[in-house]
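fwd from M.: "can u put these together and see what the complex looks like"

so here's what she sent:
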Amino acid sequence: MKDFDHLISVWQEQPKQPRLSVDDVLKQIKKGIHILENKVLWGIISISIAIVFTTGLTLFAVFEQRLSYIGLFVMLAGMISYLVLQIGDYRTISRHDLTLNPGAYLNSLKEYQKRRAYLNGRFYYWFALMLCLGISLYTIEVFENKPLIFKIIYYTACAVYILFAIFYLKDRLIKREEKRVSYLIERLERLEGQFE
Amino acid sequence: MADKDAAFRQIFESNSKKIYRLCYGYTGDEDAAHDLLQETFVKVWQNLDKFRNTAMISTWIYRIAVNTCLTYLRSEKRQAKEELTPQLAETRREEYSEKNEQIALLYKCIAKLEESERIIITMVLDELPYPEIAEISGISEGNLRVKIHRIKQRLTDLYNQYERL
């Protein structure tokens, strides 16, 4: 017949040690914080490269028809608007450090979620429309001497890709990001509640 | 940031073992206990700046751990595993000894207790002062003494009952 003191001695003599080291925990804390930031940053870099290329084409290539320039300007307008929104998103998400100020980071995250909903929602259709229009106007002159079959294949491929991006790729990428942001918000809100 | 890292390291070294036992006693699952230990210390890091009273840091960490454990069970609707021995026996056959058998039995008995009782008893077993346990569990000291007496009795009975089998 054992008494409670025996249970205390069993408990306290247990050799069971956590496998987790302090370095593992610190690594975990610092990992994942910059995932969202990096994603937006890569978006900014990619669109900036496209803008530089299109600007170079507008400035240095010689076109006979005004429609080609209009097409390039339409594409540039769409891409610059996209860049401005992405920069705004980046500034929102990187304003606060999650590890130093989780409360402020949570508010930034909620603002970021709203901004992304706009960027990936209504704005995305405008962006796709502007790109389609720009490409169509630009290629009128560029493809002037190309055979009809080439034009048909090119425009069909463009249309298929844009439809694929809007109805499949966009949804998949956005859902993954939304899931990540919602998960972060949920965890931070739970955490906030514990320290009130 | 370097100061915060150093402070965190010290806090982790002095508290992780007890918090791990609390999580393990609560979930009865080694992997879940590690996850909860990690989650607790991520929260500790994130809120370290808010904490001012260094004398009571262990109480504060316990409270975080208890909340983390409760949230784990409630949000995931998980039940604590009743059988701890098979896991211990299967994965650590080489470590199997009388002492381990007693520990496994003790965890098995803890798993039979109510959710709140499990948390309280792990703190009692770690010999935390009653006022601290009262603060962490949010129960008045008077009620806690009665409760602890009952839980001790129940755990001892369970232990003796299982040991005889």
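replying to her w this: The two ends of chain B are 54 Å apart (CA to CA).
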